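F.,

This is the one I mentioned.
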């Protein structure tokens, strides 16, 4: 059983920054694609960012240029640096792992989520 544990969420003013972390218990972490999804109240979960085992990255258009996904395989951790935050970024952010792409149905492992709230 692989566990993913997110941290780093919180309350921030518009224009501010947060850095999310997701620590994995997987022994083959470096072979996995790791992604961030988010779900705002009353909305469906949506793709935010993806980093493959090759370190290739992909972003949703809504966060491109503001968010950066990275990974540290030695620490089995993936990060999401979020800059220039907007109120519409408010959501619960989830870390996901294994062999998926931008579709959340493709992932086997999920964290419990961390709340990000951006005030205007």
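My design for it:
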């Amino acid at each position: 059983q692989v566990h993913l544990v997110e941290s780093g969420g919180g309350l921030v003013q518009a224009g501010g920054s947060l850095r999310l972390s997701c620590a994995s218990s997987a022994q083959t972490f470096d072979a996995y694609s790791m992604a961030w999804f988010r779900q705002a109240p009353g909305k469906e979960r949506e793709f935010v960012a993806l980093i493959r085992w090759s370190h290739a990255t992909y972003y949703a258009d809504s966060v491109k240029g503001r968010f950066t996904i990275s990974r540290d395989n030695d620490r089995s951790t993936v990060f999401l640096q979020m800059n220039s935050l907007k109120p519409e970024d408010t959501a619960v952010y989830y870390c996901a792992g294994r062999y998926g792409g931008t579709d959340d149905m493709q992932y086997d492992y999920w964290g419990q989520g961390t709340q990000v709230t951006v005030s205007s």
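The two ends are 40 Å apart (CA to CA).

Talk soon.
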